[in-house]
Design a protein that fits this description.
A hairpin with an 8-residue loop joins strand 8 and strand 9. The protein is globular. By secondary structure, the protein is of the alpha+beta class. The strands form 9 sheets. Strands 5, 8, 9, 11, 12, 15, 16, 18 and 19 form a 9-stranded mixed β-sheet that branches.
């Protein structure tokens, strides 16, 4: 009952949307025109027309009790949040390790630093080289059955002011290190991992003081599984081990320890080499704070002799499912990598529909978004957008952003959508609704309104069915004065699902091999081809990494250099990226 659309009128809260403050321009005297949409400064979805948000079903943020395969989902969630002893164990490993210079020095290594932007600015500044950082590696010997491979870059020294520290390392692998024997067929079978910041003494550093803007370990040499001919495939950057600021849990549910991910029993993540390692952090303390030394740290716990065909080593693969609307007006779809803009002071809505590719059991999931501007995200299965009447309700087509929505209009849209869900029998499998139970306020920082948004575990356990319809519905609205006055806000709306396919054992399964979204111009594709990306923006963002990757793959180091070159050409063409060798 909790997971199906709606609650009865008697059970629902009063039909109101709470706006802490709103500014609207009144029409001039005698004017027949209506006033423009208000600037909404703080927006809360008070009316639970869809039922309670799945993430607040209980204090831990985990789903209610389930049995069978679904119990794996719940145990994964609870295990993630019950991680205090795990944090102490990893900190001991990091602090007691004998760190050595990384012996297989990468083709490309960059450490950089930049002064911060004014309060609330979310963008990449111009960075300058940082000469004080070095790469180190260590293999733990305290647990020979499942040893740790650890890699760190630093130390960086920061003084607050929302400044940026950054690294880019490519290629990174363990082939020429004392951990080479732990690789299986060019991949590392990982059963536990951490990506984040640590102190020189090995203590995990949380948010605050450091906002982990992003930390990615990505596999590079992956060929698109939908293409039978590898020469026509795509060489991409596929996120294998990933963490962002909102991956940290509430203090009552583990805090920074949630960045340590222990996979479910009898599962492993198979991460193909070589890797690209890149990360950014912000020191969110006030400018002029005492010096803080920190490292970018990657730790992977390996299960030797593990292979996907063994029952105790089933693949645990990451499917990144990003949602992107097409903004109204002149086309400018992204600010930088897979990020779309919204008008921060306004309420905006979009929907995206597609179909699942095959039957899959969802082992776990969570949401990454910029919650300062995301009020709600719903994911339904078993109905099309037309059956839910979304084109008429929003007056825009699939994947197009509808903005300048008034609160009372959104209230009507949500009520009508809830009624359609009940009528069609569509199932609500994922639901995020921004709520104070999932953020912490810590005074004296440079975060907007001193609000720290924490991890959102928004889905219930569910199984996809081949060709089954699915619809995502997203509401953007600011939370607080500083968020509302940010003008254009850069957004992510990314659902991360984890599934197991023995035939596809890689750490990452490409989104369009999991769900195929409906292209507004026809056809069904994944996020790699659905959006008309502004090449200038992408070129500015990725010029150096693209040149770096191209040089590597086209070098004499690879026996299949010609095939790689063909793949890279296809990669650049399909993404509309100007590819500079």
């Amino acid at each position: 009952y909790l997971f199906r659309g709606g609650v009865s009128t008697a059970e629902a809260p009063p039909p109101s949307l709470l706006c802490a403050a709103a500014l609207a321009s009144s029409p001039s005297s005698g004017s027949a025109s209506s006033s423009p949409s208000p600037m909404v400064l703080s927006y809360v979805l008070a009316e639970q027309v869809f039922g309670p948000s799945l993430m607040v079903l209980n204090a831990s943020g985990c789903p209610a009790q389930f049995t069978g395969q679904s119990q794996l989902y719940r145990s994964t969630c609870l295990d993630l949040l019950d991680s205090k002893s795990r944090q102490e164990g990893l900190e001991l490993e990091v602090s007691s390790c004998t760190w050595k210079p990384y012996s297989a020095w990468p083709w490309y290594f960059e450490a950089s630093h930049a002064k911060g932007y004014p309060l609330g600015k979310h963008a990449n500044p111009l960075k300058q080289p940082y000469d004080g950082a070095h790469a180190q590696m260590c293999t733990s010997s305290s647990n020979t059955s499942e040893p740790w491979i650890m890699f760190r870059v630093g130390p960086f020294e920061t003084y607050g002011g929302y400044d940026w520290s950054s690294i880019n390392v490519f290629p990174f692998d363990v082939v020429k290190t004392d951990a080479a024997h732990l690789a299986q067929n060019g991949a590392l079978p990982v059963v536990e991992w951490f990506v984040g910041s640590t102190s020189p003494k090995g203590r995990l550093l949380g948010y605050p003081p450091l906002h982990q803007h992003h930390f990615h370990l990505e596999s590079l040499a992956r060929v698109d599984p939908l293409n039978s001919d590898p020469a026509q495939g795509v060489i991409g950057l596929w996120p294998s081990l990933v963490a962002h600021g909102d991956d940290q849990c509430m203090a009552s549910s583990g805090g920074v320890a949630c960045l340590i991910r222990r996979l479910p029993n009898r599962h492993a993540q198979y991460i193909s080499m070589p890797f690209l390692l890149f990360a950014d952090t912000n020191d969110v303390r006030p400018l002029g704070s005492s010096p803080l030394q920190h490292y970018f740290t990657l730790a992977m716990r390996i299960k030797p002799h593990c292979s996907p065909d063994l029952p105790e080593c089933s693949p645990y693969s990451h499917v990144k499912v990003p949602l992107y609307p097409r903004p109204p007006g002149p086309r400018r779809d992204i600010f930088y990598a897979f990020t779309y803009p919204i008008a921060a002071p306004k309420i905006s809505v979009f929907y995206t529909e597609g179909r699942f590719v095959r039957d899959d059991e969802v082992l776990w999931s969570y949401l990454h978004t910029h919650a300062a501007w995301t009020a709600e995200l719903l994911f339904f299965v078993g109905a099309t957008a037309e059956q839910l009447n979304l084109p008429d309700l929003l007056s825009v087509g699939n994947n197009h952003l509808r903005d300048n929505i008034r609160p009372e209009e959104l209230r009507m849209i949500r009520r009508e959508l809830a009624a359609r869900i009940r009528k069609t029998g569509a199932e609500r499998v994922c639901h995020f609704s921004r709520h104070h139970s999932a953020w912490e306020e810590i005074k004296g920082t440079l975060e907007m309104s001193d609000i720290f948004y924490r991890k959102n575990i928004i889905c219930k356990p569910f199984t996809t069915v081949a060709n089954q319809s699915a619809v995502a519905f997203v509401v953007h609205a600011a939370n607080g004065l500083q968020a509302a006055t940010a003008n254009m806000a850069p957004m992510h709306s990314i659902m991360r699902f984890f599934i197991s396919r023995t035939a596809q054992s890689d750490a990452v399964i490409i989104d369009h091999d999991f769900i195929q979204w409906k292209d507004p111009e026809g056809g069904a594709v994944g996020y790699n081809t659905i959006y008309n990306v502004d090449p200038t923006i992408l070129f500015t963002t990725f010029r150096k990494p693209l040149a770096m990757i191209s040089d590597y793959f086209m070098s004499a180091r690879l026996k299949a250099a010609e095939k790689m070159q063909q793949s890279l050409g296809t990669f650049a063409t399909r993404l509309s990226w100007p590819f500079d060798r």
